[in-house]
From TrEMBL:
Highest taxon of source: Bacteria
Name the UniProt record assigns to this protein: L-methionine/branched-chain amino acid transporter
Gene3D superfamilies per the UniProt record, alphabetical: Amino acid/polyamine transporter I
Keyword ATP-binding recorded: no
Lineage of origin: Bacteria, Pseudomonadati, Pseudomonadota, Gammaproteobacteria, Enterobacterales
């Protein structure tokens, strides 16, 4: 799709995806995985990467052959027609009322841990976060990518510092024997750990803004996924080495507690700021992706509409403004209605997996060769994940059915990858 500025390179793409996958999970999930599977979590991360790999390959192939700001909705449009594309697009946008308030709550929580802010202070942090994302949106995606590369470097540096100061080396890692692993605990750990790899669908919206999407988008996606997986594994090693999990300790406090133990209490604010930046990076890529979806849908059908206009830097600033306003309203509503954080996260995760499934099914129709095989395998994995989530997927299924019924139908179209 023409219009958006193409200024994302390979390194920037790796930074965008890796920080999107790390997000809030890098501080909490390693401790949760260790609590469920103990040292078996060391084997769980490589296994999870192998399981997610088919989904990543299919996403990489779709982004390579069909780069478009519409992302998942565009892939579904090519495979199943415009009506299904509208449903997918609105389904993705339905994450805003549940997912973004949850992410803002987690991000502001790091400020509370570091500086003891009250509720008004937390609300101001959330507002400042949205304003910062808006200012970044005034420029092209390449500007956000440069910042997220720096955030990725900070996260990696923190893990390296923990290993160095803690005397952790590959020789000191106590790998459990494979025959001693519990299948049940490994399965439960993988169910939790999968959410660290939610973010591929958001990254797909940026494919059209790569300088060379056919070459760099697949590489950035796969390398970024491996970088994020390596960081998660490195954090898990540290959590196990210092036994910073379980008991009364909150999962998100595991890495900060290790930092304090190694570097002193004065280093707590450093860990909290890095945790906030990781959350900010994930929030940034999601809101930017939502904006590109809103822009692309209007650009195709109502090119003169306000939300279909680009800024001077050829970024969808008007669409981003609308998305951020909706995010602010949803965040305030979640606060005043005292909606529980875990419920918000679960409902958002169900939608993400459902969108993954729609993309994998699109890949089954659009792709050829090994990529098509990966899409079939990815479809099976997504169905398995939906079964694992159970009744909590009803929000996603209900939203899908409502959108299917109320959205107007259009002409069908289908294409194949060359």
């Amino acid at each position: 799709m023409s219009g958006l500025k193409q200024d994302i390179g390979l390194v920037q793409g790796i930074g965008l995806l890796s920080t999107s996958l790390l997000g809030t999970g890098v501080f909490a999930v390693p401790a949760l995985a260790a609590q469920i599977a103990d040292s078996g979590s060391l084997w769980a991360w490589p296994l999870l990467i192998l399981l997610v790999f088919p989904i990543a390959i299919a996403f990489a192939a779709l982004g390579r052959h069909f780069p478009n700001a519409g992302g998942a909705a565009h892939f579904v449009s090519l495979a199943f027609g415009p009506h299904m594309a509208k449903v997918t697009g609105w389904l993705f946008l339905s994450v805003i009322p549940v997912g973004l308030p949850a992410a803002l709550q987690i991000a502001s929580g790091f400020w509370q841990a570091a500086f003891g802010l009250d509720q008004l202070g937390l609300q101001l942090v959330q507002l400042a976060t949205l304003l910062t994302i808006w200012f970044l949106g005034m420029r092209s995606a390449g500007s956000s990518a440069n910042i997220q590369v720096l955030i990725a470097i900070l996260i990696v540096a923190m893990v390296v510092a923990i290993w160095w100061k803690g005397g952790i080396t590959p020789a000191t890692i106590d790998w459990p024997a494979v025959q001693t692993l519990s299948a049940n605990s490994m399965f439960n750990a993988l169910a939790v750990m999968f959410w660290c790899f939610v973010g591929l669908e958001a990254f797909a919206h940026l494919a059209a803004e790569f300088r060379n999407p056919e070459r760099d988008f697949p590489r950035a996606l796969l390398i970024g996924m491996l970088v994020a997986g390596g960081v998660y594994w490195g954090c898990t090693v540290a959590v196990l080495a210092f036994h910073a999990y379980g008991g009364d300790m909150a999962a998100a406090a595991s890495l900060p507690s290790i930092v304090v133990q190694l570097f002193g209490s004065h280093a707590l604010w450093i860990a909290c700021i890095i945790g906030y930046l990781a959350c900010f990076a994930s929030l940034n890529i999601y809101t930017q992706s939502f904006a590109r979806l809103v822009w692309s849908q209007n650009y195709e059908h109502r090119p003169k509409a306000w939300v279909a206009q680009l800024s001077r830097s050829r970024s969808p600033l008007n669409a981003l403004t609308l998305v951020l306003l909706c995010s602010l309203i949803a965040s305030l509503a979640a606060y005043y209605l005292t909606l529980p954080l875990d419920a918000l996260i679960v409902y958002a995760n169900g939608i993400f997996v459902f969108i993954y499934l729609l993309c994998m099914l699109s890949g089954c129709r659009l792709l050829k060769g090994r990529s098509k095989v990966m899409a079939f395998i990815g479809s099976g994995l997504c169905i398995l994940l939906l079964i694992m989530i159970g009744w909590k997927t009803l929000y996603a299924i209900g939203m899908f059915m409502v959108l299917w019924l109320i959205l107007p139908k259009g002409r069908e179209q289908s294409v194949k990858a060359e």
